[in-house]
Design goal:
The protein is an alpha/beta fold and 202 residues long. The chain has 6 helices and 13 strands. The strands form 2 sheets. It has a 9-stranded mixed sheet with strand order 2-1-3-4-13-12-11-8-9. A 4-stranded mixed sheet has the order 6-5-7-10, covered by helices on one side. Heterodimer of HisH and HisF.
């Protein structure tokens, strides 16, 4: 059972629908007992960084950290991925969950913002979430801010927007994050979610 965190931000139901489409048992909840009694956790969302942190709440955020510390797989998607980092400058300074070292900054001047559309990701075969892919694959992005990774313990896979390298996927032990939307990335995105389900079962 995978618990998708319900915390009043956008694009949550589409993640649940994608999990349904691959036959993955899931529930939408923010109840502590559901989070604890799950094989894995997905933190999705489309929202400003500070809004997402406020909507998540301190208690739920701490519980996610506790469960991740116990080794439970956790996957953040879009805003849910960005809040895994230390902080963001979006609409002022905001602290994140501080699970992965790095900051979230606005995409550089001169680029079309938001970045929306399909972009080629350079696959890192050392990330089990990306197992079974070619050297480069296309996924769907929709974001105005991007993470600057400084965590030496983390694995990364990159994309390029304009001439800017953008972190597309990150892994630190049992914690995974995706800047792109697997639920909007057709068959390849479904394969990413299938890989996460496999990780949760292992």
């Amino acid at each position: 059972m995978i618990t998708v965190i319900d915390y009043s931000v956008g694009n949550i139901r589409s993640v649940c629908n994608a999990l349904d489409n691959i036959g993955c048992e899931n529930r939408l909840s923010n109840l502590p007992e559901d989070i604890r009694n799950s094989d894995g956790i997905i933190l999705p969302g489309v929202a400003a960084f500070g809004y997402a942190m406020n909507a998540l709440g301190e208690d739920c955020g701490e519980l996610l950290k506790e469960e991740a510390d116990k080794g439970k797989p956790l996957l953040g998607i879009c805003s849910g991925y960005q809040v895994l980092f230390d902080s963001s400058t979006e609409l002022g300074f905001n602290r994140g969950l501080e699970m992965i070292q790095g900051t979230v900054e606005r995409l550089p001047e001169g680029l079309i913002i938001p970045h929306m559309g399909w972009n080629k990701v350079r696959i890192n075969p050392d990330i089990p979430l990306l197992e079974g892919f070619g050297e480069e694959e296309y996924f769907y992005f929709a974001h105005s801010y991007y993470a600057l990774l400084s965590d030496e313990k983390a694995e990364s896979a990159m994309t390029e927007y304009g001439r800017t390298d953008v972190l597309a996927c990150v892994q630190k032990d049992n914690i995974f994050g995706l800047q792109f939307h697997p639920e909007k990335s057709s068959g390849l995105g479904m394969k990413v979610l299938e890989n996460f389900e496999k990780i949760c079962r292992s």
